[in-house]
Amino acid sequence: MSQKMLQFIKVERKMPGKRASKTRTADFAEIYGDYSIKAAQAQASRCSQCGVPFCQEGCPLQNNIPDWLKLAAEDRLEEAYAVSSATNNMPEICGRICPQDRLCEGICTIEQSGHGTVTIGSVERYITDNAWKKGWIKPIKPPRERAQSVGIIGAGPGGLAAAEELRRRGYQVTIYDRYDRGGGLLMYGIPGFKLEKDIVERRIKRLEDSGIIFQFNTEIGPKLTLNTLRDSHDSVLIATGVYKARDLRLPGIGASGVFPALDFLTASNRKGLGDQVPAFDDGTLNAEGKRVVVIGGGDTAMDCVRTAVRQGAKSVICLYRRDRTNMPGSQREVQNAEEEGVVFEWLSGPEAVLHTKANKVKGVKVRRMRLGAPDASGRQSPEKTDQTVDIKAEMVIKALGFDPEDLPVLFDEVALTVNRWGAVRINFDTMETSLSGVYAAGDIVRGASLVVWAIKDGRDAAAHMHAAMKATAKTKQAAE
Ligand SMILES: Cc1cc2nc3c(=O)[nH]c(=O)nc-3n(C[C@H](O)[C@H](O)[C@H](O)COP(=O)(O)OP(=O)(O)OC[C@H]3O[C@@H](n4cnc5c(N)ncnc54)[C@H](O)[C@@H]3O)c2cc1C
Ligand code: SF4
Q1: Distance from the alpha carbon of residue 55 to the mean position of ligand 2, in angstroms
Q2: Is pLDDT above 70 for 342?
Q3: I want to staple 270 with a disulfide (CB 3.0 to 4.6 A). Which of 104, 246, 275, 300 is the partner?
Q4: pLDDT at 279 over 60
Q5: Helix, strand, coil % in the chain, rounded to nearest 5
Q6: Predicted confidence band at 446 (pLDDT cuts at 50, 70, 90)?
Q7: What percent of the chain has pLDDT over 70?
Q8: Mean pLDDT throughout 177-204?
Q9: Counting ligands in written order, which one lies closest to the CA of residue 63?
Q10: Ligand nearest to the CA of 239
Q11: DSSP string for 399-434
């Protein structure tokens, strides 16, 4: 359905309502289980159409949630899909993996009045899954082709969203990625039990069928430089994400059996995709039958503990140095993990990795902590107590977050400006970097963030790139 037709979809709204007190419940079974039209409509019709759309404010894409909920409740699913996809390039993916409790659902008026949120993400997912099934999602056919071309570095959600928006406007788009598949962390980071990989694959295939060229196994770096790309394209987008794993400095940290989170998750995802993964097959990166300790309290740590459970670990313990209330990961994920048998050791920091004479990991020495005065960020700082305990383990996973790689060095381009954390600096009015015609979007600008924010950035960057290229084309035309 075209943007023009969208304005003819009529959805009546009620007048603004009142915001009430705060409590929340969440329905995990609906989000992760089978979801029927009946369940989707039952949820969609719970929306009071309050008219305030807090939910819309809570969504980084400002999705028109009340309208597509109403259309879904009225069984007008094709229209619901048209409204939903007008602001989001992958609604079925966001519906699955957005931390809705911190975004749209956390701020839902029904939730705020203590009646449990409308499960917005599940309905969003249903609408677009149904659209795929019904064949409503077709390759893009731009109304006109443009000669100008764009090079995008990174096929994660930021790069994919930008590619789609630019192709829609008729540009010739090539995406370069060092991986052998598209999707970025959608493919190799987020586990398959949260996001099935065929869901990501069909999005990539649609973009290929739309004329977007993917050059996989192609790293932009010392050999193929950013400068070469600038010479080959009218505009370039950097959407490379953040991949430098934060490390721990501990005695014994180099023991065999200690792994960075992304090595563990990528091996598991590749196995799920049917790839040959020798390090998984020989047991190195397989948690089966092992006692596993995961260090960290963010969403990556939650993905690791839940993956280890699924691989048949003997036990899974998560160490986090603050308490439950102060952990950065989603409470929903913690609850899921606990239900699956994961044990959380709160207020516990690793002191040393214990290993055998042959340097094989055999456990972690843990220091108990207490919470002290708040630090600069306002969070209470963990302080050491004099209590320690040894926890046995055959596998230790470090899940402490990610920082940007050193792009000016990797790209051999010192004029590319980055901030003190290594994130690419952009002009927030244009999303252009310090290099003319080079833009940046997603985690490489924000630091480790969320899929929905990468999509938003990709869409915004595409709009700015389009405006600049259109202006250049006009100037050229006038000069001819
Ligand atoms: C384990 C894990 C779980 C997560 N779970 C969630 C979740 O449940 N929900 C959520 O919203 N967010 C989640 N996130 C965060 C989310 O995945 C990221 O915020 C999002 O993927 C960022 O998108 P991006 O396009 O900026 O980068 P990425 O998805 O990282 O994609 C970047 C792409 O660039 C490519 N690339 C990098 N450097 C180069 C180079 N030099 N040359 C060529 N290609 C290059 C990479 O191969 C990659 O394909 C999770 C992150 C992790 C690590
Ligand atoms: S994109 Fe994410 S935040 Fe926005 S409506 Fe969908 S699930 Fe909610």
Answers
A1: 9
A2: yes
A3: 275
A4: yes
A5: 40, 20, 45
A6: very high
A7: 93
A8: 97
A9: 2
A10: 1
A11: ---EE---HHHHTT-TTS-B-TTSPBP-BTTTTB-S
* Assigned token pair, 144: 């006109």
Q: What is the pLDDT of residues 147-157, one digit of tens each?
A: 999 999 999 99
> Is the CB of 442 within 6 Å of ligand 1?
yes
Mean per-residue pLDDT of the chain: 91
Residue 78 amino acid letter: E
Ligand 2 centre to CA of 75 (Å) is: 21
Is residue 332 over pLDDT 60?
yes
Q: If you take atom 1 of ligand 2, which residue's CA is the nearest one?
A: 94
Instruction: Please give the backbone phi and psi of residue 288, each rounded to the nearest 5 degrees, phi first.
Output: -55, 130
Ligand 2 centre from 73 Cα, in Å?
Answer: 18
d(C-alpha 19, C-alpha 17), whole Å = 7
For ligand 2, atom 4: residue with the closest CA: 59
DSSP state of 314: S
Torsion of CA 458, 459, 465, 471, to 10 degrees: 180
Distance 242 CA to ligand 1 centre (A): 7
Per-residue pLDDT reduced to its tens digit, 406-433: 999 999 999 999 999 999 999 999 999 9
User: Does ligand 1 come within 6 angstroms of the Cβ of 449?
Assistant: yes
The single-letter DSSP state of residue 195 is: S
What spacing in Å lies between the alpha carbon of 85 and ligand 2's midpoint? 12
Ligand positioned closest to the Cα atom of 237: 1
CA-457 nearest atom, ligand 1: 26
Distance 427 CA to ligand 1 centre (A): 22
Count Cβ neighbours within 10 Å for each residue of 414-427 and write b for 16 or more, e otherwise: eebebeeebbbebe
Give CA–CA dist 362/414, Å, rounded: 44
Query: What pTM value is reported for the model?
Result: 0.92
Provide the pLDDT for residue 11.
57
Q: Is 63 in the pocket of ligand 2 (CB under 6 A)?
A: yes
Q: Whose CA is nearest to atom 44 of ligand 1?
A: 177
- For 219, the token pair is 């790293």
CA 128-42-73 angle, 5° bins: 60
Choose between 108 and 64: higher pLDDT: 64
- Is the model more confident about 93 or about 18? 93
Q: What ligand is nearest to the CA atom of residue 330?
A: 1
